[in-house]
Design a protein that fits this description.
Layout lengths: L5 H8 L9 H11 L12 H7 L4 H16 L4 H35 L3 E6 L2 E6 L8 E5 L8 E12 L1 H4 L5 E2 L18 E2 L4 E11 L7 H10 L2
Antiparallel strand pairs: 1-2, 1-3, 3-7, 4-5, 4-6, 4-7
């Protein structure tokens, strides 16, 4: 989207940079795409997480090796004990890593904007951010938190703090220009606004280009769940 003009984006996403989506289009896209929210894996107890660690093929092989070692040479039981200790430590480490990933995912969810200002049917509305759909026209002002990844189509001294996503220490000036290529780092995509980032100055309009797990924050969440 960063290499497309506003007119091209309007055509691709079947939206309008002045009037936004119609109520009928929003309803249809909600049915097709679902809500703009991060998905969560099934939460399990510590015991289940611990037991799941023993399903790995390598772990099963090690346990079998420990048993065989003891049966073949009972007097050398210390070798079997060492293998069991290694397996247990590995299982504990696996549980710890899973818990860290869950906490990181929860932190990402807490960063999400609770609400968003959109223009639909030509009227400004305040909605729950999870109801945002691709093609929605976002109104961004200082103090707002971006509800979903969006392409800037109007900018009036707009600045957004993207430190949580890119590590940039200062707010980024945003403009509604067309960039030359797609191979540009997130921090240099000055015509994009990203979910969970804070608007620090100015105002602007942006068309939502991705929602839910397709957002940049969603991609991070997906990596955390699949670690």
């Amino acid at each position: 989207m960063i290499t497309k003009t506003t007119k091209e984006i309007e055509k691709m996403l079947e939206t309008n940079s002045k009037f936004g989506l119609t109520s009928e289009m929003v309803k249809k896209r909600l049915e097709e795409n679902g809500f703009n929210e991060l998905k969560e894996g099934k939460k399990e107890s510590l015991l289940i997480k611990f037991l799941n660690q023993f399903k790995e093929t390598l772990t099963i092989i090690l346990l079998a090796a420990a048993l065989i070692s003891y049966l073949v040479e009972p007097s050398e039981w210390i070798d079997s004990v060492i293998i069991l200790v290694v397996v247990l430590l590995n299982a504990i480490l696996g549980v710890v890593q899973e818990n860290k990933a869950e906490k990181s995912l929860e932190a990402l969810k807490n960063m999400s904007a609770p609400s968003a200002k959109v223009i639909r049917d030509g009227q400004l509305k305040m909605i729950d951010a999870k109801e945002l759909e691709i093609g929605d026209l976002l109104e961004l002002e200082a103090g707002d938190r971006v509800g979903s990844d969006a392409r800037i189509v109007e900018s009036y001294n707009l600045q957004i703090d993207e430190s949580a996503l890119t590590g940039e220490s200062v707010p980024v000036n945003k403009e509604s220009i067309v960039l030359e290529n797609d191979d540009i780092p997130l921090g240099d995509r000055i015509n994009m606004a990203y979910q969970s980032c804070n608007v620090t100055y100015g105002r602007g309009l942006a068309i939502v280009t991705a929602t839910g797990m397709d957002n940049e924050v969603g991609k991070i969440a997906d990596m955390l769940m699949n670690e």
